[in-house]
UniProtKB/TrEMBL annotation, chains A, B:
This is Pyrophosphate--fructose 6-phosphate 1-phosphotransferase subunit alpha. It comes from the Eukaryota. Tetramer of two alpha (regulatory) and two beta (catalytic) chains. Pathway: Carbohydrate degradation; glycolysis; D-glyceraldehyde 3-phosphate and glycerone phosphate from D-glucose: step 3/4. Pfam families: PFK. The lineage of its organism: Eukaryota, Viridiplantae, Streptophyta, Embryophyta, Tracheophyta. SUPFAM superfamilies: Phosphofructokinase. GO terms for biological process: photosynthesis; response to glucose. Allosterically activated by fructose 2,6-bisphosphate. Keywords: Allosteric enzyme, Cytoplasm, Glycolysis, Kinase, Magnesium, Metal-binding, Transferase. It comes from Vanilla planifolia (Vanilla). It is found in: Cytoplasm. InterPro entries: PfpB_PPi_PFK (IPR011183), Phosphofructokinase_dom (IPR000023), PKF_sf (IPR035966). One of its GO terms (molecular function) is ATP binding.
Length: 640, 640
């Protein structure tokens, strides 16, 4: 089967044109000198969990942040790397394909070759299975030629997306040693990067010299934290899906007779649904996070949508568009509990056709209430991570049918007097995933690939390549790397027989922040979206002309400048110290103050939560200001 | 509900940019003088049916072709129209929304206003229902401003898409008279244009002065004939769908574990599936026309796909993409017969849940064999034209399931030794229909709208606006109009209780020509498509940069120069006559010859079939050549 991967592809005219696009790199990555400045040692956002994480990752926890600097920057203690010996690097796709993945490999290849033309990049063919089996393809410019700026993962393929069991970890280590790899780059989402961190720790412990670097590539957009603003692929996925949703909105408005229920990708988090709603202004969107937060039942959601349909009918409107994320089914408490029972029964080896007989009375009652098609889908064997086969569960059809039943009931009771409710259902999943990547994803992926080389050149292990200030143009992007352990949290896992032990640290998917600005924007407009049909069509993805630089709205509205704040805070702390030092009469107090400052520094180590950081920053800003004013006036008036 | 139509829309940046795009018009439409040349009177391609058609359309059958000429063309008998009194025109959307529809209205509006700024264009709000109810919106530049080059039909909306019953025809006539309309432009596909022809005939008979003009707008691409090369919307639909199919192909190739079964729009004809296959190179495509031609049963199709999956498994390939048109279900003989029985029972007023008890034994056996989900879908009440609710019948899921069953059976029997077959199904319907129209569709629709004015200015009734030479740039397009009756054929209809009487003339959907070049191209590559995964991604629709002028392949490869041939043949006939006239000794022969020539002229009247035309052309070319040589030599040698 490997013969399909990495072969030259027949390209359409547009694809050929795209292969000629050369992504920019920010100034800090230019040239052949790597300049790295190390920040403070990192901790974890979950301070309670930091202890657990540090125990699980003794070799890789607490490492400092790394910032890559431009040639002109004046940072006295930066490490300057001018010698670039030959290195051998391996790269593997782990996780669902995401537009832009190929450009990580291209960027990595370019950076490796710029710094030493004799260095080698090996791609593992067939995903993690290829890694375990040492199946490689040497990446060359020729191999890359028909994959530059192209979608899919078909340059190398992907398979089980796991490096987790002792057997898998050992196989990976054996491969890295046999192939004499200096570095291994893992391209994936939250679980693959958790695996990357574990592999880095194991390598460090086993004195395996291969350094492991992770790259945040997942169309779900849920690998976000203090260090990671966005994921490769999310921009493209949202643009392609927004186009399709908008087309459906236009269609709804033209005939005015159908309600469209559209299920979007997004398993643990509803970022895609949120962004697409902000782009295309459908009448309704039900986010998994809202359902979880309000503990909405299937009945509640049905009632909400039915009420909306009824309210629109009173305005003589019989069309509309409703978005839901595929993960919604696991957010609805009673369906989640039912799925848990079903999965447990699967785990006991009970076959799908017998499971309904083994359900608890309440679960059985719910199961029998559901339409036959959804029963069959709920009975599907769970995925390898024990979650339901969400792509196969047609929650949009379930909701459409329940809403129809509800409206028919209301009609019989004389409560709903409108026309018959007609629904058409869609699942927008795979048709976006293989898309040509947007300009943003091409650039972002290429730059991340470039950074991976810098991380390896700096000898770092267990880091993720990061870019911040992404809302600005590429030449303003800030490149760095953060230890993956600093992105971890510790959660209880209680699912199924194959579940992780309780309290295992991991990079967890970040859900939509219901207090965040993007969600606020949605809520502010929700009544208008519901009633006024202010549909908006961002149109097909463009590669030329104005609009090509449009970025996802959630990136622009969310306040993500964590890295900037960390730097600013450190400047405040230094300033407080400097200012205080002038007041040399009170040695005891000075000492006490320094202890306070150290304590603040410790609490707000990179990795702490954004809220803690903001509070510290606000406090320190005012302290600094007061002290500045005081010391200026005392100096000026010579009152000291 | 009307309040939603025609209101200014909130537009995205790209949409705003598109509103600024000004389509070109060909030279023959420029200026304020309309120059029209009339060709020979038309007949119908189906010479047996011509008699029936002429009886059904005594006032509008046999009218001549109209060609609109540029100012510089030297045609002595062209009609030159320089005076343009104020006219009042109505326009209505009839039929499913198709990208570009809005530009027909814009083009018509522009042409009307250029020729007389006091003329008025009224849009009927709410489709044909608006026409019957005299609900209008005066089209102005302001109204148009947020609809130029935009998708959907939400400027005016559409409803029942029928002007057929005596009641409907009378209501339409009353509206036209009440609103003092000089012209009525009907935008739609085959059925709407058949209705337009009927309306024109009725108006002519009733001395109603409103002239009716049809415009070929249907994303199915099945309103094609000697005069009509392409339909507005088809280009966009194929491009949007090809992008999505290609994305899915890329996805399949990245993970190599799924077969994707994709159902595309295309009810009576599989043009969309054919074009998309030529654009994106999926592994398989099953066209309704192939199934009809070979009388393939459900079992045959299942076997063909299963064989293909098995053959690929032998090459260690477990992924693939299969396209089918939504009309496939009506092409499979036994399913068609089953649907006929079901629809007849619906017609007898039997409710859906009781129908299965009334089926004939064989139909009942087939029905029980089918999976429950498809049974429920087959039982849906038929559409207004008595066809099945094709958008709701998940034929792709049926085939995927039957193939899975077949492969499981083969596996048990030891005949199939590959991995388990996994299918994922998609329906690509509504998500393309509301798309921003491609540049081609924007231009073509705008030009057709412009032509409608010229048709009205020339006082023609029952014509369709036509553009030929579409594969060339806009400034080479040839504009004209042909009587809709010349596009009609007479077919037996036997479907259901509400069916047309046998032998009623209509513009019928043209199916894929299995002897045509486009299909030949597909067949030539089918083995390579099946095994070599030479997927091709035309990418998202582009509005800027190179590639923006790409046209559908079926337009480029098909040999469509009927209009050119008609003109050439007439020149030959004239030449033969001229040459023969020189031989004045044999008056009797001359007369006989002229009778022959007249007979040829009669047989090859515009509207005759392409095959007859080609044969005539070939014969006449050789006659002309022989005669030319003979007369030259006899003149030269003075031997006469």
């Amino acid at each position: 089967m490997d013969s399909d991967y990495g072969v030259p592809r027949e390209l359409s005219d547009l694809q050929k044109k795209r292969t000629l696009y050369q992504p920019q790199i920010p100034p800090c990555l230019e040239g052949t000198t790597v300049r790295v400045e190390f920040g403070d040692g990192t901790t974890a956002a979950d301070s309670a969990g930091a202890h657990v994480i540090s125990h699980a990752f003794p070799h890789t926890f607490g490492q400092p942040l790394a910032h890559f600097l431009r040639a002109t920057s004046k940072v006295p203690n930066a490490q300057i790397i001018t010698e670039h010996p030959v290195i051998r690097v391996g790269v593997v796709f782990s996780g669902r394909q995401s537009p832009g993945g190929h450009n990580v490999i291209w960027g990595l290849y370019s950076a490796i070759k710029i710094h030493n033309n004799n260095s080698v990049l090996l791609g593992f063919v067939g995903g993690t299975e290829g890694l375990f089996a040492q199946k490689t393809l040497e990446i060359t410019n020729e191999v890359l030629s028909s994959y530059k700026n192209q979608g899919g993962y078909d340059l190398l393929g992907r398979t089980v997306d796991q490096i987790r069991t002792t057997e898998q970890v050992n196989a990976a280590m054996t491969s890295c040693q046999a192939l004499k790899l200096d570095g291994l780059v893992i391209i994936g989402g939250v679980t693959s990067n958790t695996d990357a961190a574990q592999l880095a720790e194991t390598f460090a412990e086993s004195k395996c010299s291969t350094k492991v670097v992770g790259v945040p590539v997942t169309l779900n957009g849920d690998l976000r934290n203090q260090f990671v603003e966005a994921n490769v692929g999310f921009d493209t996925i949202c643009k392609v899906n927004s186009q399709l949703i908008s087309n459906v909105c236009t269609d709804a408005l033209s005939a005015e007779k159908y309600y469209y229920f559209i299920r979007l990708m997004g398993r643990k988090a509803s970022h895609v649904a949120l962004e697409c709603a902000l782009q295309s202004h459908p009448n309704m969107v039900v986010l998994g996070e809202e359902v979880t937060a309000s503990k909405l039942t299937l009945f509640d959601i049905t009632k909400q949508i039915s009420d909306a349909v009824q309210a629109r009918a009173e305005q003589d409107k019989y069309h509309g568009v409703v978005l839901i994320p595929e993960g919604l089914v696991e957010s609805i408490p009673e369906l989640y509990a039912l799925l848990q029972e079903i999965h447990a029964l699967h785990g006991q080896g009970i076959s799908a056709d017998k499971i309904s007989g083994h359900l608890s009375p309440w679960a059985s009652a719910l199961f029998e209430f559901l339409p036959p098609f959804i029963r069959r889908q709920l009975l599907l064997y769970p995925e390898s991570d024990d979650s339901a086969q969400l792509s196969q569960i047609e929650t949009e059809k379930l909701l459409a049918q329940l809403v129809e039943n509800e409206l028919n009931k209301r009609m019989k009771e004389g409560k709903y007097k409108g026309k018959k409710f007609n629904a058409i259902c869609h699942f927008f999943g795979y048709q976006a995933r293989g898309s040509l990547p947007s300009k943003f994803d091409c650039d972002y992926a290429y730059v991340l690939g470039h950074i991976c080389y810098h991380v390896l050149a700096a000898g770092l292990n267990g880091y993720m390549a990061t870019v911040t200030n992404l809302k600005s143009p590429v030449n303003k992007w800030k490149c760095g790397a953060a230890p993956i352990t600093a992105m971890m949290t510790v959660k209880r896992w209680s699912r199924g027989p194959g579940a992780n032990p309780i309290g295992k640290p991991a990079v967890h998917p970040v859900t939509v922040d219901l207090k965040g600005k993007a969600y606020e924007l949605l809520r502010q407009n929700s009544t208008s979206f519901l009633f006024d049909d202010i549909y908006r069509n961002p149109g097909p993805l463009q590669f030329d002309g104005p609009g090509v630089d449009a970025k996802v709205l959630t990136l622009s509205v969310e306040d993500q400048d964590y890295m900037g704040r960390i730097k600013l805070l450190q400047e405040y702390l230094d300033k407080v110290l400097t200012l205080s030092v002038e007041d040399q009469d009170y040695m005891g107090r000075i000492k006490l103050l320094q202890e306070y400052l150290d304590k603040v520094k410790y609490i707000v180590k990179p990795g702490c939560s954004q809220d803690v950081l903001k509070a510290a920053l606000s406090a320190m800003a005012s302290v600094t200001e007061v002290l500045s004013v005081m010391s200026t006036s005392s100096n000026a008036h010579g009152l000291l």
